[in-house]
Amino acid sequence: AAQIANELQQKNLYVFMCAEHNGKRFSEQLVEAGVQIGWSVRLVSFGPDVTAAVFAAGFATRAALSFGGIEPGDFRKVLIYNKDRIFAFALPLGYVTDEWYAQALGCVNYGFPIIADTPIPEILPTGVCTYEHVVSNVPHDKIVSKAVEQQPTPTTVGG
């Protein structure tokens, strides 16, 4: 967990964590490894239930509304804004239940791909996401780089 979190932090990405499996949470593994979590270090735990993933989706929606000038309820424009401007992906780690898979697929509705370390049904052609939608069986030492390559290069604003 610490290695994955460190790689994500080095890329200046926010990590929104939720869910547990057999009493193990990604955020707890980080704390046990001596890693600081919280907003200031971009490692944010939203809770032990997989349904807390909705808070990360809400964060992406607010970005589209605030910075994209999109009106609330315009789901098509929110999708396009997020797909093109928000550099995000879901990393369901460990055993993925049907409920976890359904929650992760919600990310696809925002244009965010899913990269898993276990075997889950893959969706490889493009459409909603820029590249593959769901990629499985990615080893931990390659999961961050695989997730990053699924997204277009982030746009830098300013000079």
Question: Your description of this structure?
Answer:
The structure is a single chain. The chain has 6 helices and 4 strands, in the order αβαβαααββα. It has a two-stranded parallel sheet with strand order 1-2. It has one domain (2-149): Rossmann fold (3-Layer(aba) Sandwich). The chain has 159 residues and is mostly helical. 30% of the residues are buried. It is globular. α1 packs parallel to α6 (140-149) and α3 (53-68) packs across α4. The longest helix is centred in the middle third of the chain and has 16 residues, at 53-68.
- The level of helicity is 40-55%
Q: For the CA atoms, what is the radius of gyration? A: 15 Å
Shape by Cα distribution: globular
Structural class: mainly alpha
Overall mean pLDDT stands at 86
Whole-number tally of structural domains: 1
Spatial gap, N to C terminus: 35 Å
Alpha plus pi helix count = 6
Strand order of the largest sheet: 1-2
Q: Note the beta-strand portion.
A: 5-15%
What does the largest sheet look like?
Answer: 2 strands, parallel
Number of DSSP-assigned strands:
4
Return residue spans where pLDDT drops below 50 for at least 5 consecutive residues.
155-159
* CATH class wording: Alpha Beta
CATH topology: Rossmann fold
CATH architecture: 3-Layer(aba) Sandwich
SSE string: HEHEHHHEEH
Keywords: Iron, Iron-sulfur, Metal-binding
InterPro entries: CO_DH/Ac-CoA_synth_bsu, Prismane-like_a/b-sand, Prismane-like_sf
GO molecular function, one term: metal ion binding
Descriptive terms for the model:
Rossmann fold, disordered C terminus, mainly alpha, iron, 159 residues, iron-sulfur cluster binding, Prismane-like_sf, two-stranded parallel ribbon, globular
